[in-house]
């Protein structure tokens, strides 16, 4: 395999340290866009070879992959475990006998099958939506204002109450249960202290994680758990519990909350090519709230320019050569390869010269987007929460859009 790679001038441990300290900044869309503008489509970041050409990223997302304990460019630690590896994002899906696909099937079965549709339509779910609308009316909701910063109320409070209820049947009306969930799902610090390397190494949040494990283990979705099912690689109730606790914090609530903030104007787009000047809230106010397709495209276009998960990774299974600033360099098997979906989703060769313009009506948005590690409808390890995430953000646009049009 040969690829063209431009190397960032800073090197070795200094680069690593700098990338770690500035991780959030470095992996955010604005700075990676700037990196590509100065270094070209391919580059080296934090010890990973990054390849951002749309077709190469699409090929990777449609291929099986070897993995390690990374979320995009972010090293993870303290990941859930029982006696064997269970953290989906770290697991290879390169052969049928591997557990990855069966564990995903188990997760999907218990979260999104029995009782899920009923819970979505239930009185409890309606109360979550009513509370969200009420909070929007009563709390200041500009960027960085109360609606977006509270933990147990406002937008985050809604996601904690609603997702734990619809996926797991957890009684989030019980204040004691909410207290345990909020302690782990609140703000931005716990995600680092729970799972991001090096902050999570001492496991200072261990008892907080354990409390959420207990709430999930005792949830109604897992009450009928059947042990020893071969189709789920004999995944145990404890394994699914620990995996789910981590997924709720790392992916489900964090990812969807970011998208919901962005589509409602609570988070400015990255400062690149005037994307940050897009007035998302003003665009939202022009939408036909009865047009499901338009609402979906609105969410996808926001996520294309500002994706909650900006990259995935994989590990090279064989040695390969790469052309770096005109020189061919050999990389060994085991090299970490960064797959920056954010850059692929703004590759002008695929999206055209208006790639950085906010245009929810752009052609083939649904077919070409990679927001959920998909390529349209294809992909080998597509996010199992994509429909819940999208449906929830679309409904947020509808419910809060109505409040805005009533002049609140
Ligand atoms: C807007 C919100 C979300 C976005 C943008 C998103 C995006 C992604 C992406 C890009 C991946 C692939 C990561 C990788 O391979 O390294 C992923 C994986 C995953 N996501 Fe989501 N996600 C979102 C919400 C959710 C929700 C609500 C759930 C809850 C069920 C969820 C559960 C998962 C799981 C379990 C995986 C691992 C899948 C696997 O390894 O096969 N995500 N997500």
TrEMBL record:
Pfam families: p450 (PF00067)
Signal peptide: 1-28
Coiled coil: none
Keyword entries, A-Z: Signal
This protein's name: Cytochrome P450
Species name: Durusdinium trenchii
Taxonomic classification: Eukaryota, Sar, Alveolata, Dinophyceae, Suessiales
